Amino acid sequence: MPETPALTVAKFGGTSLADADAIRRCVEIVRADPARRVVVPSAPGKRHGDDPKVTDLLYLCHDHAERGLPFAAVFERIRERFRGISAGLDLGAAFAARLGAALDAAEAGIREHAGRGPDFAASRGEALNGLVLAEALGFACADAAGVIRFAHDGRLDAGETRRLLREARGSAGAGLVVPGFYGADAGGTVRTFSRGGSDVTGAAVAAALDAAVYENWTDVSGLLMADPRVVDAPRSIERVTYRELRELSYMGATVLHPEAVFPVRAAGIPVNIRNTSEPAHPGTLIVSAVPPGEEPPGAPPITGVAGKRGYTAIQLEKALMNEAIGYGERVLSVLRRHGVSFEHVPSGIDTLSVVVSDAEVDGKLVALVDDLQRELEPDALEVDTDLALIATVGRRMRTRPGMAATLFGALGAAGVNIRMIDQGSSELNIIVGVNESDFEAAVRAIYAAFVIG
Ligand SMILES: Nc1ncnc2c1ncn2[C@@H]1O[C@H](COP(=O)(O)OP(=O)(O)O)[C@@H](O)[C@H]1O
Ligand SMILES: N[C@@H](CC(=O)OP(=O)(O)O)C(=O)O
């Protein structure tokens, strides 16, 4: 029996499909490798700093429609973008007419769906861009509403999606375009993933079609060792494990939607983050594990550093807290009652801190602290605001001595005051809390100490 040749599923992000020139580069990338037979596009993204994403314009159309206001002027900007793309790609008059009809149907659909949530409107950017990309590639285009199935709880129905996609792939010929970001429930109602969700479609499609690799094409050469807006030209990460990625992306290194990890991880499919503007760069490979023998010699001891502002620490001190059975549990039960989830709970002999994100305690902090005072009767209770958390992450850290000393030494030398320390139990991660005003200096100092050396 002939072996099925390996399949690569290639997802292209909005910045990679923002205009005709950008789309042409994506078409060249797909054509450069015959394994790239299934393509998942986002909607056209920003062409420059303050340009709107087509998806944002579509949400705006929905908001107008919902309030009974005219939205033709906003929709005209979307038409203009797609007309420019179609003309710039020389897709011809017949396709321009087809695209025009699809735009008319989208505009009418947004009006019809007003009052039924924004998902239909938001999905049209990917639906229309799918038509464009399929035409440019000579591939078939699926309607994602027919192949990406949502369960009742709004999550992906992986089993049904697998069946539907395999059917569509079987009858598609040369190649298939599956628009990202949306699908439909069993009743046919269009649903979207959360923002950035074309990554999730790409992962679902790769898992359903047993792809050998899921390529995620974006505007950076893979996951970088630090946020490029904070550190000047950070190195890109060659290989990262799913666990490291989870730690880094939770703290803001967001090249991949967090939900996109699960379908491919479960299927053991590696994810390759690549740069459309630098296609020769190998990018970052996300894998389950890196065997010790395959670690590149001379690799930096950390995989990356990421962080976020906007945290508050509530510190409780009580003599003999260490002997008071259930003290920690009572603290956390107060949080639970207020519907607050916590990030970290670093503790000492007679002290315990709870670190929460500001968004979690917005409007609840005073009542929460009152209850902690009354029910836990601490000797002292302090609320520390304006905290930034920084995670220094790396699988190689476990086996290298002196990591904490290097980290704290670098922060000390940069004049950064450390207000909290927590080492994740996975030993993959050391988290420090610093003043928000020290955030950038701290990230740069950590990067310099571990990567530049
Ligand atoms: N550690 C990091 N590595 C790479 N990119 C990062 C990191 N931290 C933040 N970013 C930002 O994430 C952006 C890419 O993600 P995203 O907006 O989802 O792209 P796309 O439109 O291709 O889906 C980059 O432009 C970069 O500014
Ligand atoms: N277009 C959608 C989905 C998406 O994934 O877009 P991008 O690949 O540009 O992040 C959004 O803006 O949320």
UniProtKB/TrEMBL annotation:
- Keywords, in A-Z order: Amino-acid biosynthesis, ATP-binding, Kinase, Nucleotide-binding, Transferase
Tell me the organism's taxonomic lineage.
Bacteria, Pseudomonadati, Planctomycetota, Phycisphaerae, Phycisphaerales
Q: Where does ATP bind?
A: T218, D219, R229
GO MF annotations in UniProt:
aspartate kinase activity; ATP binding
Q: What gene is behind this protein?
A: lysC
Biological processes per GO annotation: homoserine biosynthetic process; lysine biosynthetic process via diaminopimelate; threonine biosynthetic process
Q: Looking at the UniProt record for this protein, which Gene Ontology cellular component terms does it annotate, in alphabetical order?
A: cytosol
State the name under which the record lists this protein: Aspartokinase
Similarity comment text for this entry? Belongs to the aspartokinase family.
Which Gene3D superfamilies does the UniProt record give? Answer: Acetylglutamate kinase-like (3.40.1160.10), VC0802-like (3.30.2130.10)
- Reactions it catalyzes: L-aspartate + ATP = 4-phospho-L-aspartate + ADP
Could you tell me which InterPro entries the record lists for this protein? AceGlu_kinase-like_sf, ACT-like_dom_sf, ACT_Aspartokinase, ACT_dom, Asp/Glu/Uridylate_kinase, Asp_kin_monofn, Asp_kinase, Aspartate_kinase_CS
Please report the organism this UniProt entry assigns to the protein.
Phycisphaera mikurensis (strain NBRC 102666 / KCTC 22515 / FYK2301M01)
